[in-house]
Write a structure and sequence with these properties.
- By secondary structure, this protein is of the alpha/beta class.
- It folds into two domains: 102 residues, 3-Layer(aba) Sandwich (Rossmann fold), CATH 3.40.50; 96 residues, Formyl transferase, N-terminal domain (Rossmann fold), CATH 3.40.50.
- Helices cover 35% and strands 25% of the residues.
- Strands 3-2-1-4-5-6-7 form a seven-stranded mixed beta sheet.
- Helix 1 links the parallel strand 1 and strand 2.
- Helix 1 crosses helix 6.
């Protein structure tokens, strides 16, 4: 069984999607710990309600980003985590954490990468005038939103869409896609080759 560590900063809706997929048998995994850098993140309550241990480690007051990430590595290893899942964790990771879990740090992003990386991807998509947006689950590398793509889902942009309406539809796809990507990795149905993720269609 795949052991997950989930990092959050806010409401934790993708965390809830992961926990729901585990509960209904779609995902053969367990969440060993949920870590937040924000003490009052609503997602912590969702984790506690599901019986998942939680820890708060503020990013403030550390000498460097690397020192903070080293602390996260300690916690994740203490819980024997196999795969680190970023679920609205609003911190850029350094190589300290990424290298500690090679090809085992996963993120979901609200665009069809490589289009619209970084913050406000939905607003970027609307400002650009695209007719199709979407979401991407990808492995994390030191370059933001540039790691190997595991899965993507397209979301049509409707006339009159706002950032809020488009974000809501993309989020529904994130909730579907993220547990599926975790399942593929847990079942070994793919591998990283160079800078690409190659799926195994077994």
């Amino acid at each position: 069984m795949l052991t997950l560590g989930v990092l959050i900063s806010g409401r934790g809706s993708n965390l809830q999607a992961i926990l729901a997929a585990i509960a209904d048998g779609r995902l053969h995994a367990r969440v060993a710990v949920v870590i937040s850098n924000v003490a009052d993140a609503p997602g912590l309550a969702h984790a506690s309600a599901a019986g998942v241990p939680t820890e708060v480690h503020s990013h403030r007051g550390w000498p460097s980003r690397e020192d903070y990430d080293a602390r996260l590595v300690q916690v994740l290893r203490a819980h024997q985590v196999d795969l680190v899942c970023l679920a609205g964790f609003m911190r850029r990771l350094t190589s300290v954490l990424i290298d500690a879990f090679p090809n085992r740090v996963l993120n979901v992003h609200p665009s069809l990468l490589p289009a619209f990386p970084g913050v406000d991807a939905q607003r970027q998509a609307l400002d650009y005038g695209v007719r199709v947006a979407g979401c991407t689950v990808h492995l994390v590398t030191p370059t933001v939103d540039a790691g190997p793509i595991v899965l993507q889902a397209a979301v049509p942009v409707a006339d009159g869409d706002t950032v809020e309406t488009l974000s809501a539809r993309i989020l529904r796809e994130e909730h579907r896609l993220y547990p599926e990507a975790i399942r593929l990795i847990g079942e070994g149905r793919g591998r990283v080759e160079g800078r690409r993720w190659l799926s195994d269609p077994r």
